[in-house]
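The following block was generated as part of the benchmark described in Methods. Ligand: guanosine-5'-monophosphate.
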Amino acid sequence: MYDKNNIFAKIIRGEIPCNRVYENDFAMSFYDVNPIASTHVLVVPKGEYKNMFEFVNNASAQEQADFWSCLTETARIENCIDGCNLIANVGNGTFFYQSVPHFHIHLIAGDKKQDFSDIAK
Ligand code: 5GP
């Protein structure tokens, strides 16, 4: 079940501010508030999907197209289309931890600020 009060749902609804990188009809990207690298952007669909598999299984073709387009445009804007790390945590386990239950991909590049394990654990 999707939690409509998660922090990214509030950002998408405009109830909480964010530093936006790119937006289209069905997706948007914004800077992570606690970056682990000099480039650390979160890419989200605007629809209510709690993780990547729910998105892949249930989102419309247009939502999926807009999501991947948003990710690609964001990488272009951030000058990391030729080199970056893309991470999507799904649920919680011993070496992965999804703290926000709205599907997002971390786009990470540039200089390291914190350990990678800080978002993957
Ligand atoms: P997860 O652990 O779910 O894979 O990643 C959630 C990410 O959201 C974390 O990297 C965290 O720093 C980021 N985050 C949490 N709250 C906010 C917020 O209010 N604004 C922004 N821009 N990022 C947030």
